[in-house]
Amino acid sequence: MLLTEPADGTPDVVTDDAALLDAAAALAAGAGPIAIDTERASGYRYSQRAYLVQVRREGAGTFLIDPVALDDRIDPLISALADEEWVLHAASQDLPCLAGLDLRPSRLFDTELAGRLAGFERVALGTLVERLLGYQLEKGHGAADWSRRPLPLDWLNYAALDVELLVPLRDALEKELRAQGKLDWALEEFEVLRTAPPAPPRKEPWRRTSGIHGVRTARGLAAVRALWETRDSVARQRDLAPGRVLPDSAIVAAAVAGPEDEAALLKLPVFRGRAQRRMSGTWMRALRTAARLPKSELPDPSPPNDGPPPPNRWADKDPDAAARLSAARTALTALAEANRLPVENLLQPDLVRRTCWQPPEPADADTVAATLRAGGAREWQIALAGPDLTKALQARA
């Protein structure tokens, strides 16, 4: 059955203090877990803030809350949601922007993560709702510009439907996890997710520029860095997604071409456009700054990596490590299949590689468990995968 609008109709958007107080009172008086979702404008805005917060609870109904109209002052909502279980889908995407509004769960159930642990191959919200509840959700607006005002009616329908069936989905997934003996695993995962600290800033984020592998020289990398940092500053000031200020492809093209003046820059693709012509002086200053850098300040074409080398080099560098990794991958893949789990949810691949490259001494059950725990593995993962990984660490070439 296709759902195109909420069962109770599309709620009005909460845009003033009086409506927020009413919503908070209704939610506080409701019963059971609270379904929550947010809408951002990642492809349009620099900020990762929430432009809409959707909340639903049994006995209260659905509320669409506009934090922009409320100047992010949502204290009544914070109080109403305290000490209750929150149900989100792919919570890691929503928790940071909710935290920006001082909204933090005291308990959490993530339906996407629950679906992975339950062994479902496809865990998109619509897919799980259709499989477990028999409903189809209207698609189409997840990547829209949610900073737009007023929000169109069909977008509001979409947003409200995202929380319409979250709690029933949660209940179905809990039943499935319990039947498989995995509910405790899921609860441990949810708690780790709930309490995770904010991710630290990336070191040298400019190195993630798409297509940077085509820049072969340190001087060219300096140009990428200068353009990326300039673009980031402009994007931040204008609250625009960086790619809308200057695409990665244009950054790489300019770094490779090394234009000597604005005329040469404006002959390059993208830079010929009206918006880039207006910014040509800004981009050229960044390029000239990179061109004047002394060699000592140029970026390293091969920056140091604190992790092991790529696995395809292990056989040459350390054949025993390669044998350990091969044995570990075989054992963990079989264990994941036997337990209907994605292997990456059994143990993080990077942790497996690091442990196989530099195993603890002695590689017994206790030291392997301690190593996995220090690397962020959960207790259920250690209990399940630790024995097989310990055996794999004894492998020799």
UniProtKB/TrEMBL annotation:
GO terms, molecular function? 3'-5' exonuclease activity; nucleic acid binding; nucleotide binding
Outline the extent of the HRDC domain: 217-297
Xref: SMART domains: 35EXOc, HRDC
Q: Which residues form the signal peptide?
A: none
CDD domains attached to this UniProt entry: RNaseD_exo (cd06142)
Per the record, the GO terms for biological process are: nucleobase-containing compound metabolic process
Q: Where is this region: Disordered?
A: 292-318
Q: Where in the sequence does UniProt note compositional bias of the Pro residues kind?
A: 300-312
Cited PANTHER family: RIBONUCLEASE D
What is the protein named? Ribonuclease D
